[in-house]
Amino acid sequence: MIAVPAHGRGSLEEHWRYWVRWRWQSLLFLVGVLLIGTPDGVEVINLAAALLLTIAFVPYGIHIIQSALNPTPADEN
Questions:
Q1: 60: in domain
Q2: More confident call, 75 vs 60
């Protein structure tokens, strides 16, 4: 799991990894939301949009499950 680098601290590589990790999910989500609004009759585009949204949300869901199974002491408050 990649932690959020503190502002002004950490290496450039840590900042890059954090940025890239969430950026691709945001782009897939945006494209999926835009495609899901196509009119009826274009089921292939709606299917592609649903797949993009699924791919965008799977890592987020895994993160939620991991934090529920392995809580840190700060989460228990």
A1: yes
A2: 60
**pLDDT tens per residue, range 21-69:** 667 788 888 888 888 877 777 888 888 888 988 888 888 888 889 888 8
The structural domain count of the chain equals 1
Can you give the residue range of the structural domain that contains 43? Answer: 27-68
| Amino acid letter, 17 | R
Q: What is the Rg, in whole angstroms, of the alpha carbon atoms belonging to the chain?
A: 17
User: CB–CB of 1/14 below 8 Å?
Assistant: no
Q: In this structure, is residue 18 part of a structural domain?
A: no
**Is the entire prediction scored with pTM above 0.90?**
no
CA 11 to chain centre: 22
Q: What whole-number distance in Å separates Cα of residue 53 and Cα of residue 55? A: 5
